[in-house]
């Protein structure tokens, strides 16, 4: 399977990268390439230019900030994130479950945060898609998953995305107008095509997790095999526990059921004041699972994933006890 | 058989050194001077008339050397003489998405892709048929083959009288099961390299399991004498039955080489491998079985509906295989089999490890557990009361010789502590049991002939070097090593002393190929005969040379002569020279043809074999009662191998069979959205990884088959068979649900559990089969000594 | 830079090549350098067959742009043995029947070699996790596990 031809650029600074991105409309960024290269081989995208970040210094590594938070360079390898004891548990465990060992040896934090949305009708070869009929996300005008819908429902399949939202993390961006930060929750949009809340000419440079001294965090992933597979449901949870043992604040964020991670605020509120007892967890799981309406566009279908939502939310919360 | 040195000793493969150093040259690794790259254009339509194919834009592309369409290869072919229904490139019609429509040879892969994208095919779409039910109901005919409508083949056979058997029964169960289709997914994508010389000869290297049948197909389709075609099976990177048909890309590569005068290589993409398929048929099954109060089977009526995909392939045999081996493990005094194979607009199904028998085996072994529960028996007892006897005939005229099923049952049950665990493990944990049997080679060749099914030649050099020539094709199962073991044992040498030349139609005498688990038994017997001829000549010469009586001369440890007196021996090389001095060229040949085992009815050729292997599997599972996920804790597998020629290789086949069985049971499905494959990739098609594989305890049972080489029988396919129903039975033991449908995915387990909560019976799967007329019933009397 | 000059070390030997931008490391090894020991099973990073070591770490050569490996040390199955002296893993794989068809074997071997380099005495679970990205269709992984354990003993 050959890659389409493209121009390959290797800037040595982020600023150069941003500039190259600006003057090469439609260019794609490559770091580890484990998302981009298959998508290009399948001709889901055929960018004329690929801009590599690998030769830029200072964009990888995990640093504990003065305030106790952690800053993770966008080029940090998932392997290194998974092995880190300095990051919240949920982040390391989510990283450890991404792809295969070989994938984690090259795939990066920034790459997983920006992972393209996935769908059984788009992550297919060009000849398959021509046989099926092209879809909204690539060159077509219909969504084969929800043919009456106007919007692409490809699924956010990043394991890190729901975790970062649950951690109130921020991403650092550099664009033509300089740098800025964006809440992780704003990095994702509920649109399978235009799924990132940053502008196309901005590059994610870092992930910053605020200090979380009293928080417990966790991640549960549903998939068929213990490795390689993308999530078909991801549950990121975080609770802040006060001295009296009661939940002061909570986050429940679901991944891999919609084009963006879904934060379940009603369920979070239901946990506040509880001692994470079975009853509170059950109530929260029920509330969090209620709005889950997965489409039949990834493995194992919608009905089962809907069934599994309360189970996985419950288990993720139980892990925090 | 005592005193064997090499036979029975665990040892490495003879080709291991190349394998672990990256030197094994698979077909896709071959490079030839001036070689072009070839590619195939896939049909985008499931069912359509081809109105036109415009190749002009492709031909105009620089770098393109040839473009072919169906018109260039008009001769039909197919693996079975009764199903000559395929074309290398579609002619007039396409019948599944992915069917090759046109082909290109160009200077590089980019030019091939570009050229293929420039070929314009105008289609007139036709209604497409996706399922068994649609095929039986549809008025749209996929093609003119078969018995009419979309029915490819029907079968209706009754042995004995099932009516009276059911009348005499204490319990009669009727159950419906479905076995989803799955595919081989060998890691090596099929590849072929062809070269055509100015001398008018064509050579094809291919990842094929059947160089002889491919040779015959090329003779027919290329319309040239077989003597001018050379087929070489390169080392095959996994077969499992998936490389047992002649394929489009093989024929096309040869034709492109002939048209361009340049070597041409075609490597299928992974997606094209899924489309080439020939894997496990989806089979819908209905089983009615009668039992006496003690659990003895009084009669069985079995109906199977096979979704064959778009072409015949091995389907006429696959259909009969779903019926024929049901009688091989348990004594069924009255048996009726009705089956139908339909055409659908999907990639053609064919033989995968166990060919047509894992599906009915799943139904039979699940139903036995259900009947046992009805009768208040345990799974071991009901099986024990029905076991076939060694050296007996089945009601459908299968000749059983050596048979270790009872020892397999005893030892698997004992090793796993099955009886203590079954019904007594904590909630979520369970244990299941099943048995199976498989052929040691199909009794008949694919095309009718009276020639041997296997021939082996041996040539001995004046320096003592021994070269073994055989068309047997090593697809990873270790057939070359098995032949080396046999020859080395006979000649008193080591396997590593031998040079093995295999799978080359110019150099090696015919062996029919690596399918139906036939090589150890058939090529093994031929190799043994060839080696014995050499040995006898060497012994005679040495006796003469040393003044010994021939009956005291032995070959052992690289020396030939007296067993008791070291001074009265010659080195192997000296002995060989003595034989050449006396008799000239030291060559030997052997051949094997199975005895005539066919029963007195049409269709009896499928299922007969000179010997059957037996297997019993016990599977222990740990289920997640909330998610329906099934984790396999351990598998015990007892296998009647007859005689383990190389226990290391036997264990490897058993472990691999367990692996593939568990994959089919839990994960793998060739799934479609109507006629379109849902995910022809190794991400969407779930092969179990290292993390899904449980420990396996292999138990080798030796029964010393009277006709097998050194008593050996097969191991490549049989061990897979019981694993799937044993797992299903374990899930039932764990959770009380009967998932009557393979694969047993977590969503089905949860659905069955929810059914119980709603007051249902906890059964997941279809509840009925179509009301269908299988045609005229052939009644066959049981064999005389039955 | 498109189609640039690429220098890298392959199995200890310095190589200098012209590589077009879209060339993958897999294509470079097999087609340009003739190192066909490295196999392919999916071309999309889904099977692990094409695994090679880049600077000692197992990566999927089908997803790696050749240009990304500039200046790196690449190790393939052809680079494991020292002349005719096999790597302990090669010896163990051969002795214990860890290769059946042999197609996944090159990727399996280099992945296992990286494991033993980093962790000379891995336990069963560490071996399974390290090789989780390498599919094998023949062996059920059991003899592979045995072979890595045997080689680990030999490495010590």
End-to-end separation of chain C in angstroms reads 45 Å
The CATH topology of the largest domain in chain C turns out to be: Ubiquitin-like (UB roll)
Share in β-strands of chain A: 15-25%
Residue runs with pLDDT of under 50 for 5 or more positions of chain C: none
Backbone structural class of chain A: alpha+beta
CATH superfamily of the largest domain in chain A: CO dehydrogenase flavoprotein, C-terminal domain
> What radius of gyration of chain C results from the CA coordinates?
15 Å
Helix content of chain C: 25-40%
Subunit arrangement of the protein: heterotrimer
DSSP, total strands of chain A: 12
Which structural class should the secondary elements of chain C be placed in?
alpha+beta
Specify the number of helices of chain C.
5
Name the CATH architecture of the largest domain in chain C: Roll
End-to-end gap of chain A? 48 Å
What's the pLDDT, averaged over the residues of chain A? 96
Topology of helices and strands:
The complex is a heterotrimer of chains A (321), B (786) and C (156).
Chain A: E1 7-9, H1 14-23, E2 28-30, H2 36-41, E3 49-52, E4 62-64, E5 70-73, H3 78-83, H4 89-96, H5 101-104, H6 109-113, H7 126-132, H8 160-166, E6 170-175, E7 178-183, H9 184-187, E8 203-209, E9 215-222, E10 233-241, E11 247-255, E12 262-263, H10 265-271, H11 278-289, H12 301-318
Parallel strand pairs in A: 1-3, 2-3
Antiparallel strand pairs in A: 4-5, 5-8, 6-7, 6-8, 9-10, 10-11, 11-12
Helix pairs in contact in A: 10-11, 11-12
Chain B: H1 16-21, E1 36-42, E2 48-54, H2 56-59, E3 64-69, E4 93-94, E5 100-106, H3 109-118, E6 120-125, H4 132-137, E7 151-159, H5 162-167, E8 171-179, E9 191-196, E10 202-206, H6 211-221, E11 229-233, H7 248-260, E12 264-267, H8 270-276, E13 283-291, E14 297-307, H9 315-324, E15 335-342, H10 358-375, H11 379-384, E16 392-393, E17 399-400, H12 405-416, H13 418-421, E18 429-439, E19 454-460, E20 466-470, H14 479-491, E21 498-502, H15 519-546, E22 553-556, E23 559-562, E24 569-571, H16 572-583, E25 587-592, E26 612-623, E27 630-640, H17 647-666, E28 672-673, E29 676-677, E30 696-701, H18 723-735, E31 738-739, E32 741-742, H19 746-757, E33 763-764, E34 778-780
Parallel strand pairs in B: 1-12, 7-34, 8-32, 10-11, 14-15, 20-21, 27-30, 31-33
Antiparallel strand pairs in B: 1-5, 2-4, 2-6, 3-5, 7-15, 8-13, 9-10, 9-12, 13-14, 16-17, 18-26, 19-20, 19-25, 22-23, 23-24, 26-27, 28-29
Helix pairs in contact in B: 10-18, 14-15, 15-16, 17-18
Chain C: E1 4-10, E2 13-19, H1 25-32, E3 51-54, E4 57-60, E5 73-75, H2 88-95, H3 105-118, H4 124-130, H5 142-155
Parallel strand pairs in C: 1-5
Antiparallel strand pairs in C: 1-2, 3-4, 3-5
């Amino acid at each position: 399977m050959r890659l389409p031809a493209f121009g390959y650029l290797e800037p040595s600074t982020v600023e150069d990268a941003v500039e190259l991105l600006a003057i090469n409309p439609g260019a794609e960024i490559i770091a580890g390439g484990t998302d981009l290269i298959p998508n290009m081989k399948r001709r889901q995208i055929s960018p004329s230019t690929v801009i590599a970040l690998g030769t830029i210094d200072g964009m990888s590594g995990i640093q504990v900030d003065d305030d106790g938070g952690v800053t993770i360079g966008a080029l940090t390898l998932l392997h290194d994130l998974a092995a880190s004891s300095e990051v919240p548990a949920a982040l390391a465990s989510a990283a450890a479950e991404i792809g295969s060992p070989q994938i984690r040896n090259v795939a990066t934090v920034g790459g997983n945060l920006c992972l393209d949305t996935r769908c059984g009708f788009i992550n297919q070869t060009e000849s398959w898609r021509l046989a099926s009929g092209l879809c909204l996300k690539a060159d077509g005008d219909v969504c084969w998953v929800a043919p009456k819908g106007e919007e692409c429902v490809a699924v956010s399949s990043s394991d890190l995305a729901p975790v970062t939202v649950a951690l109130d993390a921020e991403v650092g961006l550099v664009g033509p107008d300089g740098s800025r930060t964006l809440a992780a929750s704003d990095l994702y949009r509920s649109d399978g095509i235009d799924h990132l809340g940053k502008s196309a000419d901005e590059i994610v440079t870092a992930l910053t997790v605020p200090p979380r001294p009293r928080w417990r965090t966790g991640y549960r992933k549903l998939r068929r095999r213990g490795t390689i597979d993308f999530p078909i449901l991801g549950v990121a949870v975080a609770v802040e526990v006060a001295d009296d043992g009661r939940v002061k604040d909570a986050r429940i964020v679901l991944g891999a059921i919609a084009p963006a991670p879904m934060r379940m605020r009603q369920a979070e509120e239901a946990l506040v004041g509880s001692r994470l007892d079975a009853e509170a967890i059950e109530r929260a799981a029920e509330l969090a699972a209620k709005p889950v309406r997965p489409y039949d566009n990834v493995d194992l279908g919608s009905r089962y994933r809907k069934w599994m939502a309360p189970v996985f939310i419950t288990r993720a919360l139980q892990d925090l006890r | 058989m005592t005193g064997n040195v090499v036979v029975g000793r665990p040892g490495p493969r003879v080709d291991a050194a190349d394998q672990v150093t990256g030197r094994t040259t698979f077909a896709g690794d071959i490079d030839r001077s001036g070689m072009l790259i070839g590619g195939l254009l896939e049909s985008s339509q499931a069912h359509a008339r081809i109105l036109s194919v415009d190749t002009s834009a492709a031909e105009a592309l620089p770098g393109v050397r040839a473009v072919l369409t169906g018109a260039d290869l008009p001769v039909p072919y197919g693996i079975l003489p009764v199903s000559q229904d395929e074309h290398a490139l579609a002619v007039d019609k396409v019948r599944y998405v992915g069917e090759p429509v046109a082909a290109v040879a160009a200077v590089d892969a980019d030019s091939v892709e570009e050229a293929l994208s420039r070929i314009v095919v105008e289609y007139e779409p036709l209604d497409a048929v996706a399922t068994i039910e649609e095929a039986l109901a549809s008025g749209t005919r996929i093609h003119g083959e078969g018995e009419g409508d979309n029915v490819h083949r029907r079968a209706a056979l009754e042995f004995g009288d099932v009516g009276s058997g059911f009348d005499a029964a204490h319990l009669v169960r009727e159950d419906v099961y479905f076995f989803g289709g799955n595919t081989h997914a060998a890691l090596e994508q099929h590849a072929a390299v062809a070269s055509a010389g100015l001398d008018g000869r064509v050579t094809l290297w291919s990842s094929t399991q059947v160089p002889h049948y491919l040779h015959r197909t090329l003779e027919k389709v290329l319309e040239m004498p077989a003597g001018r075609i050379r087929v070489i099976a390169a080392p095959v990177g996994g077969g499992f039955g998936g490389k047992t048909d002649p394929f489009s890309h093989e024929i096309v590569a040869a034709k492109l080489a002939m048209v361009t005068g340049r070597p041409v290589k075609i490597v299928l993409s992974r997606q094209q491998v899924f489309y080439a398929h020939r894997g496990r048929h989806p089979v819908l099954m209905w089983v009615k079985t009668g039992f006496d109060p003690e659990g003895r089977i009084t009669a069985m009526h079995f109906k199977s509906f096979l979704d064959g995909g778009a072409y015949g392939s091995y389907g006429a045999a696959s259909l009969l295989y779903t019926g024929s081996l049901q009688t091989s493990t348990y004594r069924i005094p009255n048996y009726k089999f009705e089956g139908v194979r339909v055409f659908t607009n999907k990639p053609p199904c064919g033989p995968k490890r166990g060919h047509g028998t894992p599906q009915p085996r799943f139904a039979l072994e699940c139903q036995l557990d259900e009947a046992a529960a009805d009768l208040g028996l345990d799974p071991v007892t009901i099986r024990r009361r029905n076991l076939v006897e060694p050296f007996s005939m089945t009601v459908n005229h299968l000749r059983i010789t050596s048979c270790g099923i009872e020892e397999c049952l005893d030892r698997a049950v004992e090793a796993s502590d099955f009886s203590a665990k079954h019904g007594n493990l904590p909630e979520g944990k369970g244990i299941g049991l099943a048995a199976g049997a498989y052929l040691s080679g199909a009794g008949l060749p694919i095309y009718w002939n009276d020639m041997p099914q296997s021939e082996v030649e041996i040539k001995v050099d004046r320096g003592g070097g021994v070269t073994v020539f055989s068309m047997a094709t090593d697809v990873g199962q270790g057939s070359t090593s098995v032949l080396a073991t046999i020859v080395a044992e006979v000649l008193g040498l080591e396997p590593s002393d031998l040079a093995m030349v295999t799978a080359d139609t110019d150099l090696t005498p015919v062996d029919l190929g690596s399918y139906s688990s036939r090589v150890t038994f058939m090529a093994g017997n031929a190799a043994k005969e060839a080696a014995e001829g050499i040995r006898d000549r060497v012994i005679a010469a040495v006796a003469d040379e040393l003044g010994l009586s021939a009956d005291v001369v032995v070959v052992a440890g690289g020396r030939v002569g007296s067993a008791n007196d070291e001074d009265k021996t010659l080195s192997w090389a000296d002995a060989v020279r003595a034989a050449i001095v006396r008799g000239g060229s030291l060559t030997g040949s052997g051949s094997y043809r199975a005895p005539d085992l066919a029963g007195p009815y049409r269709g009896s050729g499928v299922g007969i074999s000179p010997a059957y292997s037996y297997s019993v599997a016990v599977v222990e599972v740990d289920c997640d009662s909330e998610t329906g996920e099934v984790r396999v804790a351990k598998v015990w597998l007892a296998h009647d191998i007859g005689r383990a020629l190389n226990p290391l290789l036997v264990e490897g086949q058993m472990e691999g069979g367990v692996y593939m069985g568990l994959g089919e049971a839990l994960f793998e499905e060739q799934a479609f959205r109507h006629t379109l494959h849902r995910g022809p990739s190794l991400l969407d098609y779930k092969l179990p990884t290292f993390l899904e594989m449980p420990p396996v305890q292999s138990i080798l049972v030796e029964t010393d088959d009277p006709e097998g080489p050194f008593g050996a029988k097969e191991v490549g396919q049989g061990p897979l068979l019981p694993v799937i129903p044993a797992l299903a039975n374990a899930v039932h033991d764990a959770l009380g649900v009967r998932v009557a449908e393979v694969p047993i995915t977590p969503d089905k387990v949860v659905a069955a559990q929810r059914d119980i909560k709603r007051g249902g019976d906890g059964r997941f799967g279809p509840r009925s089969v179509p009301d269908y007329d299988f045609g005229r019933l052939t009644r066959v009397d049981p064999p005389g000594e039955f | 830079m498109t189609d640039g000059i690429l220098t890298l070390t392959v199995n200890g030997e310095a190589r200098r090549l012209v590589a077009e931008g879209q060339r993958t490391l897999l294509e470079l090894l097999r087609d340009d350098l003739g190192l066909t020991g490295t196999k392919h099973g999916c071309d999309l990073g889904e099977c692990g067959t094409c695994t090679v070591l880049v600077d000692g770490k197992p990566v999927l050569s089908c997803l790696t742009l050749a240009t990304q490996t500039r200046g790196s040390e690449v190790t393939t199955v052809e680079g494991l043995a020292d002349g005719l002296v096999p790597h302990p893993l090669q010896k163990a794989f051969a002795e214990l029947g860890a290769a059946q068809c042999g197609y996944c074997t090159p990727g399996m071997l280099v992945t296992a070699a990286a494991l033993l380099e980093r962790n000379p005495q891995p336990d069963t679970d560490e071996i399974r996790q390290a090789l989780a990205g390498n599919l094998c269709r023949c062996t059920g992984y059991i003899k592979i596990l045995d072979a890595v354990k045997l080689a680990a003993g030999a490495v010590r």
